[in-house]
Design brief:
- By secondary structure, the chain is α/β, with parallel strands linked by helices.
- About 40% of the residues lie in helices and about 15% in strands.
- Helix 15 links the parallel strand 16 and strand 17.
Length: about 450
C-alpha cells in the first residue's frame, strides 16, 4: 500500500471524514457506534436482527446501561448514526469494525460462523484503502488463519491493498464501563502498516492505546483476560464447596482474606458464570492449545467447576426444602433474577436459567421476577416475570436470589418471604438475615 493511500486515510480520520461501519449492534457494537458518533464520525451499523435495526433507527436503546444521556436518539436524528440489515454499503465504508458474537459448539469447540460470514460479506465489497478491525474475542491465529484468507480471496492483499487489525473489546456490562474511552485498548496488526493505522483510528476515541508486536498477541491477551477471571471464579467456587463441607462461612472467610492490601484480588462465589465471555472464551484457548499437543488443565478444571455450580445450588435448595418439610415435587419456588449478573438485561449463559431447568426436571413449580427481563424460555416453556409483590412472595415456599439486582428491596424480601436461599450474599448485614436466609 502506498504511503499516499495511508496518509489519505489518516487525514480523513483526523478530519472525521471517514465512513465507519460496525457489523453487529449488540453489547459491543452499540457502545462502539455511540462512542464514534459522539466524536463526530458518521457510523453505519449492520445487524441481521431486523427488529434491532428498527429500534436503533428509532433511537431506542435496547441494551441496559449503554446510553444514560439518551445520545442514541439525538445522534440518529442528527444523521450521525443509522443502521440496516444488509451489507450492500460495505464498499462505501472506509473502516469496517466486526463486533459479532462468538460462541461454542456442544462439544466446547469454537463456533466462528458469525465472524466467517462477516468476513465473506466484507470480501465481496472489499476495496483498496479500507481498514478492517476485528473486536470479537477469538483464539490466537484467527485473524491470520480464518479472516485473512477470506479477505484476500477478493484478490486484494493485506498491507498492500487493505489493512487488518485486531482490537479486542473490553466491556464490563452492568459496571458503567461501556464507553471505550474509559478502558485501555490493545491493538495488533497483521503487519506494521495495519498496526499504525489501527492505532491511529482507535486513538480518536480511546485515551490509552497499547500496541503489540503481532496480531496473535492481541488475540491471546484478550482470551487470557477472561481466562484469568474464569480460573479465579472457579477457585472461590471450589472454596465455597469446601466451606460447605467444613461448615465455615465462605463469605466471611473471603472478606477477611481481602483485607490484605497486596498480593490478592477479590473474587466471589455464585450460582455459576454467565455472559458472552467467561463461560466461552477460555475454551477457545483450550481448544487451540490441543493443536500444539498442549493440554490446559487449569482452564478445563475451571470450566468443570463453574458448570457444576447450578447443581450445587439445587442441592442447597433440596436441603432447605427438606428442613421446611416440603416435598420437592410440590414445592413452589420464586427465582429472583434471570440476568447472568446484576443490573443488566442479558440472559446469555445465565446460571439462573441452568438452575431453573434443574428445578423443573425435579418437578418443582417455578416462577421468576427480574426487573430487566420481561420473559424467558426455559426447557421450551415461556415464562413471564411476575410482580415483586407480597402476594407472590408469600405464596411460594422458597425464594432463591439468583441475580443481585441493585433495585431489589432485600430487607422487604426478608420480612415477607418464608425462607430465602441467597446465592449472591445480597442480604448481607440485613435484619433477620441469619433467621430467614440460607447462604450458599
Amino acid at each position: 500500500m502506498s504511503l499516499k493511500t495511508k496518509a489519505t486515510l489518516k487525514k480523513k480520520i483526523s478530519q472525521k471524514e471517514i465512513k465507519i461501519c460496525i457489523i453487529g449492534l449488540g453489547y459491543v457494537g452499540l457502545p462502539n457506534a455511540l462512542d464514534f458518533a459522539r466524536k463526530g464520525f458518521s457510523v453505519l451499523g449492520i445487524d441481521i436482527d431486523k427488529e434491532r435495526v428498527q429500534k436503533f433507527n428509532r433511537g431506542e436503546n435496547y441494551i441496559l446501561g449503554t446510553d444514560a444521556k439518551g445520545d442514541l436518539k439525538r445522534l440518529v436524528a442528527a444523521g450521525k448514526l443509522y443502521a440496516r440489515s444488509d451489507f450492500s454499503a460495505l464498499g462505501e465504508m472506509d473502516i469496517i469494525v466486526i463486533c459479532v458474537p462468538t460462541s461454542l459448539s456442544k462439544n466446547l469447540a469454537p463456533d466462528l460462523q458469525h465472524i466467517k460470514s462477516s468476513a465473506r460479506e466484507i470480501s465481496r465489497h472489499l476495496r483498496s484503502g479500507q481498514l478492517i478491525c476485528l473486536e470479537s474475542t477469538v483464539y490466537p491465529g484467527t485473524s491470520e488463519e480464518i479472516i485473512l484468507p477470506i479477505l484476500e480471496s477478493s484478490g486484494l492483499k493485506a498491507e498492500k491493498d487493505f489493512y487488518l487489525c485486531h482490537a479486542p473489546e473490553r466491556i464490563d456490562p452492568g459496571e458503567g464501563n461501556y464507553a471505550t474511552k474509559q478502558s485501555s485498548r490493545i491493538v495488533g496488526g497483521i503487519g506494521p502498516e495495519s498496526l499504525e493505522i489501527g492505532v491511529f483510528f482507535y486513538q480518536q476515541v480511546t485515551e490509552k492505546i497499547f500496541p503489540v508486536s503481532e496480531i496473535r498477541v492481541a488475540e491471546l491477551a484478550k482470551v487470557y483476560e477472561n481466562t484469568f477471571r474464569a480460573v479465579n471464579i472457579a477457585l472461590v467456587n471450589e472454596l465455597m464447596l469446601l466451606c460447605d463441607h467444613m461448615k465455615i462461612n465462605v463469605w466471611e472467610t473471603l472478606d477477611a482474606a481481602y483485607t490484605k492490601p497486596f498480593g490478592i484480588m477479590p473474587f466471589y462465589p455464585g450460582p455459576g458464570v454467565g455472559g458472552h465471555c467467561i463461560p466461552v472464551d477460555p475454551h477457545y484457548l483450550e481448544w487451540k492449545a490441543r493443536e500444539y499437543g498442549f493440554f490446559t488443565r487449569f482452564i478445563s478444571l475451571a470450566g468443570e467447576i463453574n458448570r457444576k455450580m447450578p447443581h450445587y445450588v439445587r442441592e442447597i435448595i433440596l436441603r432447605t426444602l427438606n428442613g421446611l418439610g416440603v416435598v420437592p415435587s410440590q414445592a413452589k419456588i420464586l427465582l429472583l433474577g434471570m440476568a447472568y449478573k446484576k443490573d443488566i438485561n442479558d440472559t446469555r449463559e445465565s446460571p439462573a436459567i441452568a438452575l431453573a431447568e434443574l428445578l423443573l426436571k425435579d418437578g418443582m413449580k417455578i416462577c421468576y421476577h427480574d426487573p430487566y427481563i420481561a420473559e424467558v424460555k426455559i426447557l421450551s416453556q415461556k415464562f413471564v416475570s411476575v410482580p415483586f409483590a407480597e402476594e407472590v412472595v408469600s405464596a411460594v415456599d422458597l425464594v432463591v436470589i439468583t441475580t443481585d439486582h441493585s433495585v431489589i428491596d432485600y430487607q422487604w424480601l426478608i420480612e415477607k418471604a418464608k425462607r430465602i436461599v441467597d446465592t449472591r450474599n445480597a442480604t448481607k448485614g440485613l435484619k433477620d438475615h441469619e433467621r430467614k436466609v440460607v447462604l450458599i
